[in-house]
Design goal:
About 30% of the residues lie in helices and about 15% in strands. The chain is an alpha/beta fold.
Length: about 260
Amino acid sequence: MGKGGGCVPSKSRAPTGAPNNEPPTPRGVAGLVPVEQNDTTRLSGSFEEVRSSTQNENLKVFIVYHSMYGHVEGMAKRMKKGVDGIDGVEGILYRVPETLSQDVLEQMKVPLLDEEIPVISAAELVEADAVLFGFPTRYGSMSAQMKAFFDSTGGLWKEQKLAGKPAGFFVSTGTQGGGQETTAWTAITQLVHHGMLFVPIGYTFGAGMFKMDSIRGGSPYGAGVFAGDGTREPSETELALAEHQGQYMAAVVKRLLQA
């Protein structure tokens, strides 16, 4: 027997095999209050709560985007058309706050975007039944403006207010190898920590996903556009894919919440 009585049961610890009626102490993330096992409350993002609150209203799909030169904004507007095409579902457009100063934006020759589309706050995400996030790529990941917006959702994460909400992505890249898939793929981490449900489009666009006769953005992760040097406008095929994604998400959330 080594020093300290390694084989002798500690006086402060129940012997091996003895019944222990004390519940284990939860080991949560620092700053988080663990949910008690007998707590009868449900997460704010649960389908039961959302279903009961939207039975007599249109389901709301928030289309939340950051757009620098208008490519993502163009897709967002076409995506709203797809959402609105599903009976009982409404698409609502929002911009995330811009983090660059007006002087910097002018030096970058950033055009004025649609100022009639309101800027969203993180707290407003709770009102959505589903969210489609759109953003340009920065080295294969989301833009800093969109990342800053996700970073501002810490309060919602702490209370898991977004848990259970379906979400998807659409992107803009400068080149064909610039991150059409990785930009969406790396963004999934944001949804995971919130407990949101990632809804990719897969190959539901049908033959349009296999066309090789023209340049086309988009992937199974979501719609996409190639912006080139910023002067190339989205093609009709790219916009049609964005409309399809809006329609697809609207159908998914309707099936989940009105079943």
